[in-house]
Structure formats: C-alpha cells, structure tokens
Amino acid sequence: MIPTITAFEQSPDRGKGQARDMRVRWALEEAGQPYNVRLVSFKAMKEPAHRALHPFGQIPTYEEGDLALFESGAIVFHIAERHAGLLPDDGNARARAITWMLAALNTMEPPIVEREQARYLEGGKTWYDQRLPILEDRVRVRLDQLSGRLGDADWLDGTFSAGDLLMVTVLRRLNGTDMLDEYPNLAAYVARGETRPAFRRAFDAQLAVFNAARSNG
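User: That's the sequence. What structure does it adopt?
Assistant: Structure tokens below.
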C-alpha cells in the first residue's frame, strides 16, 4: 500500500526544504518507497479532521492502511525499520544509528529552533539584541561538540543512516546564517547529504509544491 504524507500547502520556508515533511520525503526516497502527498492549509491544520491525525495541528503525518503516525522522527524511524538502507543490519550499529536519530532531534535541534523562533517572534522586542548572542552561543556549544565527534569522517557512524538523514535536516535549519561556515567539516557533511540523489528528489518534489503555489497565488 502506498503511504500518504501531509505537507504545507504553502510552506513558510519558501521552498528551502526546511519544513519537517522534507525529512519524511527524503527517507521515503532513500527507501525507494512511492508515496502520495496531501497538501494542507494552515487553516485545515487546526481543524478536527487533521487534529485526529496530528493532535498538535502540525505536519507531517503519515497514513498507511489503518496506521496513522505523526512526528517526523517517529515517521522516519518507522520507514527505516521497514525498508533497507536507513538502519544497519548489525545490532550494535543499528542501536548507534537510532541514538544519533534521537540526538539530532533532542540535543541538536532544540537550540537551533529556539534561535530561529526568536528571530520571528522576538525580533522587534527591546531585548532581542541582547538575547540573540546567548541563543547563538547555545547553538555553537552543540556545533562544537558535533564537529569534534564527526572529525574528518563522511558520516556519523561509518555508513549513511537515518541518524545522518535527521542530523543533516536539523543542521540545514541554519541555512541563511553563517554559523555552519565556522565548522568546515559540518558544512561539508551537510553538503554530502544534499548531494545524495534521494535528497535531490525529495527537495525537488517539495520545491515544486512551492512553485505551484506561487504561480497560482
């Protein structure tokens, strides 16, 4: 059965591939799994039909038969468990890949998103100029640690895995800043992820949605 995912009808990132449906699209492309996309407006995201799938009124969701999932990390994990190529066969390596998945979402992403949200929600406040360096320092602490662990390796733990997929999508949220430029190995790491054919297919698919919305807008 072909799964259906939801995505923004008009993504606020303007086609940059930073919305969380991008993670799910990429995972499905890596798995070679066809999928359908149902586009959801901001209004529809808050209505009962969508909240029945995602209680917090966000995207993405994943539907396959009588299975409905929300949260991008959980969806990527489900895809990785069911298809070869995103989790290693070796038990220990598999456990480490799952650890990196959780690290991407629970350790790396929160300070990056906090900095990002402050720009939109607090940019006009009197305290913003004092608060921003604090937020950026928190991000740099995590980037320092990740950079040190990655070193000159291509991927986090040998071969590419769902841990790398999620980590790259998290780090891409820094696009438009110069913060990754301070860590050449992390910038190269993200670039490696972005050159994977499955990433390009996923990116082009979500960009097509933005371009269609713009042309119809």
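The domain at 91-196 is CATH 1.20.1050.10 (Glutathione S-transferase Yfyf (Class Pi); Chain A, domain 2).
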